[in-house]
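Thread: sanity check for a docking pose with fe (ii) ion

Original post by kr_44:
Hi all, I'm comparing my docking run against an independent structure prediction. Below are the sequence and the ligand SMILES. Could someone generate the full complex and paste the structure tokens? I mainly care about where the ligand ends up relative to the chain.
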Amino acid sequence: MPNNDIGDLTKESQDEIIQPTVARQNSSVVPLVVSTAFSHPLDENLCNLLIQEIENNSKEFRTGLTGNFSSPDYFMLKKIRNSEVYFLPVNHWAYGIVWNYVKIANDENWQLDISNVQTIQITKYSEGGFYNWHHDFSANKNDPNYFRKLSITIQLNDPSEYEGGVLQLLDYSNRRIDCERKKGHVCVFSGRAPHRVTKIKSGVRYSLVAWIVGPQLR
Ligand SMILES: O=C(O)CCC(=O)C(=O)O
Ligand SMILES: [Fe+2]
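Reply from moderator J.T.:
Ran it for you. Here is the predicted complex with fe (ii) ion included:
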């Protein structure tokens, strides 16, 4: 049996907090990068459009799930996440923007063979909402083109509208990376990196999340 034990998901991570890695200019060394943040946020009008659109479709929101639906510990896994999600239709304009960010980040940092944005999720975390430590990696043995390699998150609303709700990642040395809380902030990261969204103490946090797939690694 494969060992699916991913440890205690509720425990605090290391105290050491670092900033997202910035590639060193003029160096031939390729750094091992877990995540990369863009210095320019997504235009606030576009963020507002997305929020407005999803609020207009609020009846389409579903409880966000996690893990393998057929797994016996699925109900335990539900404790990992408390949020509502809405999936954008495949012809939505946001797919082009998401692909553009991912392409730039991938060319700079990973050069992975990626083929498309799997799906775009809009997430709503109300007071008490969170997403505990998890990874986004998933693959399908029967579909060689379904291999999640990268993830992207865009913070859609202003952090003054909520308390908490920090996106945190762990790097390969188990150091914590805290993403800046900023409207429109874009972070692209390895789908295998553990990450979480800390509890929303008050208010509502909206994010756009997408997963990028490509052929199996060889
Ligand atoms: O809301 C976020 O910023 C990240 C959410 C996340 O990690 C996920 O949905 O897989
Ligand atoms: Fe995630």
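The longest strand covers residues 143-155. Hope that helps with the comparison, let us know if your pose agrees.
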